Model the fold of this input.
Amino acid sequence: MSGKNRIPSERPEDDHSFIGMLKRGWPQVKRLLFHFGCVAVGALVTIFMYDKFIIPGKDAELSQKNETIRTVSEERDRANRENGQLTKQVDQLRIYRGQDAPPLKRKALILAQQIQDFTKDWRDTDSPEVQNETVFKYLTRFGLRAQIIRDDLDQNGQLSEALDNVMYNFGYNYKDVRKIAEEIEKLAKKLPEH
Done:
């Protein structure tokens, strides 16, 4: 290179030195520094956002889940305690019932009579709403007992297709309730006295 074309600040010995190479590569170095700065700023913004918004949100979610787990555990423990108490009561009732229970025939006849007494004022002309309400009261008071007596009668050899049909295809009407009482009474009368 001639001295006329050379930049006055450049010295010929700078062409191969570190400073000379730095001057020649400075545009690329500036671009790299700019890109590195952008990546660094992006990383810092991401870390800031993560620390300020994501971590607290996850902490709150985790706290809520822990609270739910604690509540469910407490409810489970309470239910287990209540179940244990109820199991003891059922066992005590079984012992008591076994000692003082009347014979099946008598229990079945008592139930049939109670159902008949309960239904004596029912009129087939009652509105469907009244019938539904009254039959619901029957189910609440006698439904489970009628099923238990039906099972006990069946276990003692007293089977009635009519009773099974009305109990398993219950129509929520007066006729079906009366049929249950009638069939329980018929089957009970076939049992021996003791």
Notes: The helical segments are 18-100, 104-119, 128-155, 161-168, 174-189.
